[in-house]
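Notes continue from the previous slide.

Worked example: a multi-chain complex. Inputs as given:
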Amino acid sequence: MDLKRIGVLGAGNIGIGVVTDLVLHGLSAVVVDVSDELLQCAQAKVLNNVRTAPLLSKSLPRVTRDDAMQRMVWTTRLEDVASCDFIVENVTEDWALKQAVYRQLDRIAPPEVCFGVNTSCISITRIAGVTTRPANVVGVHFMNPVHLMPTVEVIRGYHTSDRTLDALLALLAALKKEGVVVEDLPGFVSNRISHLFMNEAAFVLQDGVTTPANIDQIFKKCFGHKMGPLETADLIGLDTVVRSLDVLYESFQDPKYRCCPLLRKLVHAGHLGRKTGKGFHVYPEG
Amino acid sequence: MTATETQTVQAGDQVRATIRQFITSAISLPNLDDEADLFASGIVNSLFAVQLMTFIEKTFAIEVGMDDLDMENFKSVNATAAFVMRKDGRRGG
């Protein structure tokens, strides 16, 4: 399967990262989101990511702005992905939204095209069930920042075929990434565990045990993690973390996934982490 | 020291103070050694380099080119200040 032109649905944090990675590795992206304003903002972020990528990783190439622009199409029309070889969907973690997108996408994309569901928690099998091609649906959980992370969690849905899995692994290989394949249960491996860390770190802060800086320092300096749980939550986006916790809570009906009130309060206050300049930490405008 | 040399030293001090202030406001660390390697020491993660780079481009009206994309240029307060002064000197000269 020749994968050259990739449809990317959703130009949020992860969508921007996926497009950055495609462009850096010489692939073309057709990027779809709901408004021109949102797309313009995302395009600026992708161009900045592409520009700064060699600073953060010596293995990433220097791609000029003109070359990057030639590899991207930005559109609000879902129909424009009809010519794509593979679709990576990064729509908001909301079942109603996702399933509506998949029903429409299923009508637009040629039947042989595979869909990579980029989700942190929602069941791949459930999403596959709203399409007429459940064997062509596979989970792909990119980590943030996408272009700097070498490994991706890949989720085999109940009906996912070997052909679909191979297509996704080939795409990841083109991005110089490795996929770790796991089975389909909400939260898979990474988020089922990491969200407990992030949520409990928020409870620790809420209980006044110590400061956000200290919580993160303990994870970095004692456990050797690259980032602490609160920094990680800020990077993902606190709204996304809350949505994922809610999905885990609903899916397992287990109170260990109840969202920390402080975490939800920050979201209500509009402090969503890095993307808004403030979350558990403050990020001065660069 | 000539008047020009004095002016250069003063400008360098000012650039260093501005960069130090930006970094310390981001990491809540009031006593930061200007030579401390921000990334090797784990004071910040590598993503901070992009924030720092964007800050100096805006603040000092310089453009970081493709050949400048090297962590060595942003690894400490002193390294970043020296980079800004070099870029500024090139523009002026």
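Summary box: The interface with chain A takes residues 22, 25-26, 28, 42, 45-47, 49-55, 58, 66, 69-71, 74 of chain B (CB under 8 Å). Residues 27 and 53 of chain B are 16 Å apart (CA to CA).
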